[in-house]
Every structure is written in structure tokens, then in C-alpha cells.
Amino acid sequence: MSQPTETSTATAVVLCGGAGVRFGGDKTRASFGDTTVLDHLLDGLPHDWRVICVGAARATRRTVAWCREDPPGGGPVAGLAAALPHVGTPTVVVLGGDMPYAAGPAPALAATLEAEPELDAVVGRDPDGRLQPLLAAYRTVALRAAVPDPAAGTPLMRLLDPLRSVVVALDDLSALDVDTPDDLDRAVTIARSRLEP
Q1: The whole model's pTM is what?
Q2: What residue stretches are annotated with the MobA-like NTP transferase domain (predicted)?
Q3: Is residue 3 in a domain?
Q4: How is 135-151 classified by DSSP, letter by letter?
């Protein structure tokens, strides 16, 4: 994968490599209205951001670059290890591919990080108080240093330990992830309600 000249200060890395055991298959491919969960997320990201998706390559409505974690299914930290060599911007926004509304707060997370040079990360926190490292902006250099080698099997939360970070509250919609069919039904219902006059 070549690394093009960047026109933005941020790159989005979208992790799509999960097995989806509770869902019964690949959550990112699930139908979401007239599109898929992944495409709904990608469509909402800033147009000038380069997007790198990690997982099994497939067609998407937006042009993205694909790479694969080693080994496949090795977990989110392995996914980051695969993507980071292809990031050429100072900021990387990491997103879960099963979070159809995560694009909403992504630009604000990146802007907050870029405005605070002493920080390494701006991490979302959902309404239940859980940190969301897969809805966060990171200083690329700092995230590279935090990813161990080998990366597979490393708990995602461990990456936050050495990083100087600040936490930002997220609304329940932004933090909604599709872990089960019921989650998907809820997300689709919200999407439909937004289209109603």
C-alpha cells in the first residue's frame, strides 16, 4: 500500500477485523437502511481525511485503503499495528467499524487534540462511563510508540497507560456499537427516525 501525500492533518483508521461472535457474523457488513454499517460510518467522515480500513477488503462507497492485521483476528491492537505504518498525518482518529454514528464526534476529537500540543490522546467516554479507545484521536507518534511488538492479543486499554490523555463525553448515539442484532435494530430505527419529516 503506497502512502500518498496527505492533504489533511488527520487520518481515520477504521477497525473491521472482529469476528462478530455475538452478532453471528461480520457486523460491519450488516445492512443498514440502503447501505451497510461500515458505509454509514465512512460516509460521515470528513471528505479530506484519508481512511485506512483494517480487515478483509471489500467494496465500499467511499474510496479507502485496506490492510490486514497479523494474524487475522489478532485483535484491535494488531489492527493498529497494521495500519500505523501507512499513516502520514500527525493525528490519527481510531474508530470501530461497527459504530455507525462514530463519525459525528470524530472531527471534534481531532480538533481538540490538535489544539492541545501537550496531549497524546483525546478519548471518548460513553454515557455509562466506559472509555472508548475505538472512538478517540491520537498523536500518531505517541500511538506508534505505545503499540507493542508483537501486538496481537494485547488488551486495547493497555495502550492508554503511557499516553497523556483527556476524556471527552460522548452521547449515546455516537458511542452506539452494533454487538448484537438488537443493537442493529436500534441503530436502524434511529436512522429511519432521522429521515422522517
Answers
A1: 0.89
A2: 12-147
A3: no
A4: EEEEEHHHHHHHS-SS-
